[in-house]
Here is the input.
Amino acid sequence: MTQVLVDGIFLGCLFAVVAVGLTLVYGVMEVPNFAHAGIIVLAAYTTWSVSQAGAPFVLAALAGIACGGAVSVLTEVLAYRWIIERPAAAPAVALGLLLILQNVALRLYGGAGRSLDTPYDTVLLRFGGVTLPGVKAALIVLAVASLGALHLLLTRTSLGRAMRAVAQDREAAGMLGIPMRRQYMLAFLIAGLLGGVAAIAYAPTFQISPYMADEVLLSAFVVVVLGGLGSVWGAVTGGLLLGIVQGFGAAYVSSAYQSAFGLLVLVLILVLRPDGLRSTNARRVA
Amino acid sequence: MRASPLVRHGAVAAGLVALSVVAYLLLAGVQGDRGQVVLLVVVWTIALTGLNLIMGLGGYPSLAHVAFFAGGAYLSAYFLERGWPMALGAALAVGLTMLGGLVVALVFSRTRGQYFAIGTMFCTAVVYLVLTNATGFTGGPNGKPVDLGFSMTATLVLLAASVGLGLGAFYVLARTRFGDRLRAIREDEDLARHVGVPTARVKLVAMVLSSGFGAWAGVLFAQYNGVIAPSQFTFVQSFLMLVAIGLGGAGRLLAPLVGSAIVIGFTQLIKLGPGVSQIVLGVLFILVTLLVPGGVLGGLAQLARRLRRTPPAAETERSTPVRVKEAAS
Amino acid sequence: MTALLTVDRVVKRYGGLAAVDGVSFTLGAGDVLGLIGPNGSGKTTLLGILAGTHDPTSGTVTLDGRVCSGRGAHRAVHAGIARTFQTTRLFGGWTLREALRLARRENRRPADVASDERIAALLALDGLLDRPCTSLTSAAQRLAMIALALATGPRVLLLDEPAVGMDTAESAALARAVRDVADDLGVAVVVVDHNMHFLMPLADSVLVMASGTVLATGTPAQIRADEAVIASYLGET
Here is the structure.
């Protein structure tokens, strides 16, 4: 029981880190960033190749996170920036980018799964009757640390406050002289870095492949819907909730259908909220 | 001068009959890899005609279409295995899939654009999970063979006829009040509701109809191909279907045909190494979305109009390109 | 004369906040009601409830003895209540005639509806029926939005800041058109607007809202003289 709960929390942290990246981007730009999955994939492969080249794991991890940030900013500069005025085109562009990023990974690394070795692979934490592999413990620490840092950035710095202003009301923020382009880029940068964090957390437990992040992305979208698009704390609480639901579903019903429980949650929200989702606090960050 | 409606409709009907004949000749005549390409283009055209209703006319990007496609293929194969007559099995497969479409529509037709894309994408993911895991019913990750229920000739005739009939049905639907309602929803759903369009019901009907097209295409695909496997009904396939409609020109009569030809052509004919053709498709799709929102057909129609009447166009049309609401050019 | 439209103690709450808090009034056929109040006083929310855009938390809207609130916008339209929006909304590149045709076909009582030409003439849109809506001037687009509402054959027409972005001459023409619609078609009209030069001469009666409730009702002359109205209005805006 406790073991299942802990596994659920691990999953929840992963979802939260991915979902916060999605929700930040949605908050400032109203883009459903399907390409986020591709960014996670590329970050994971970068970590793998740097580590494979003999660099220490920490360095490889940093390289992966940096790659996530860089690719994410690149997608903004090369594609999303041009559809700010046409939100209807956003899903199409996002899907196109996902297609490109995944296939770049496929081209560079092939379709075979790779596994990433970490220094904490062999560590196994035990307390009470619960065992927690070092990999998962590291992820939980990493997730809490990066989300905490994000919270400080959004609430304590002028840059963060400006970003929240943009998410509240793009037009008004523009009139107040907040440099919009910088805000867009910043949101994508942070989202990409978080994607990198998710990648190095995810890769050691599962496997690296061009399609590794598809299911996580879907779950993260459910989290975003659960917490309200554009809400960081909603994403964190929603992430934990969904993680636990999926953890229990996998343990007691069927592990093969783990991510299907996400759909169940999504359907439940939609059925229980007769107005659909427009009435959620759609444009709020932090 | 514009031709009278009767002449125009007649011309379209004749064109679609000709298209079916050409499809039959190609299906029967082309062998090997190229034959596979022809089959896929034909099957996709049938399936995407349905997607063109909900996504093209209605503006709702459905990523569940491949799930309906899979539904038709797997269910008809299942009934065939049980020894049921093919026609009954096919009808049941299409009917059950449309029931599934109804459920998906009931849940997700309340959501708008991006949520709709996310939700329908999830449906595809779950169907894929079922296909790989419910081994007793689906044969698991490696798929399973499908017996011939229709004779090969019958399958070919059905494939070819479905292309023309499907597109013909779309042509008619696009011209009825139903088509107008869907287009109104695409332009401004709130406004549509406020002039009296029962938007939820219209979207529901469009989704169910669209799932029927997908399922029927799946039935025929399973029959012709002889093997079905989860890898034919992935996530990526559902994007590519969306890409095909977008490239062809959402809402236009021939968008399914043109889009399928481009997408299938790129992925099957041009061997650029793993991934490259899809990268090219992704870039192409984004460029078309950004630069030519009307797709290939929309772009051509605009070009034709500009060539035909330069002087008056300069007066009335302003810098914002006016979207043409005719489905066919 | 019995009232055409009866609004009875309508309340709309968002969370704990009451945007509209117990509004009641009645309206007869051919009447023009001006709805004024400071920003955030609940005018647009009230209009939305009448039009079925929002469901009321409690209270009812009755048209000709039939309750028509809380059943969705399309049913409100079928019952005979149509609205326009603050921002101009039309069906993109459609011509006005195409848009009118759509609205007309949704109507359950086609006999009631004026012809395209009649609607166009009433709103001074003659000759613009076959142009794409995007090619019209912004003032003509505002009028086209009213034409679209009229094509649904309404008995009550709700206009949300129709004179926004119009100059004096254009808003005067709009006022004449609204008067004609009320007189010739017998449509009851509710107009929300901040422009008193436009609204006061046009309205038969005026309802003033403040923080979700009715502050005052009366003829335009009475309202102009009402000190509470002046205090609320000038104090808050």
In short: The CA atoms of residues 73 and 188 of chain A lie 5 Å apart.
